[in-house]
Amino acid sequence: RSFAEILLDARDLDEKRAAHYVGIIHEESIRLTKLLDDILDLLNETARAMWLYGLDTPSPPVLKLIDLLVD
Q1: In this structure, how many other beta carbons lie within 10 angstroms of the beta carbon of residue 39?
Q2: Residues 13, 7: contact at Cβ < 8 Å?
């Protein structure tokens, strides 16, 4: 976020530095997307296991993970 703010606020930023900041933003967005994909995969597998075992409520560790993600 801070690199994006630098790009938005800096009027005299040279092209090389701007490209550097854009590269960092791009790399971090890829990392964040992978992290979110992993979380969604984990939750999807949990839902499948619950269905497979006929569970109505997730286990306490899964509920804790959900609480962490929602907050």
Answers
A1: 13
A2: yes
The torsion region of residue 54 among left (phi > 0), alpha (psi -120 to 50) and beta comes to left
Work out the angle between the directed axes of helices 60-70 and 15-53 (0-180°, nearest 10): 150
Q: How far apart are CA 43 and CA 12, in angstroms?
A: 45
Residue range 55-71, pLDDT digits in tens: 888 888 888 888 888 87
Q: Which amino acid is at 71?
A: D
pTM to 2 decimal places: 0.65
The closest of 19, 16, 20, 21 to 6, measured between CA atoms, is: 21
Q: Using the structure block, give the residue that is written with the tokens 């997307």.
A: 33
- Both tokens of 27, joined, read 């790399």
Tokens read off for 49 = 């296991």
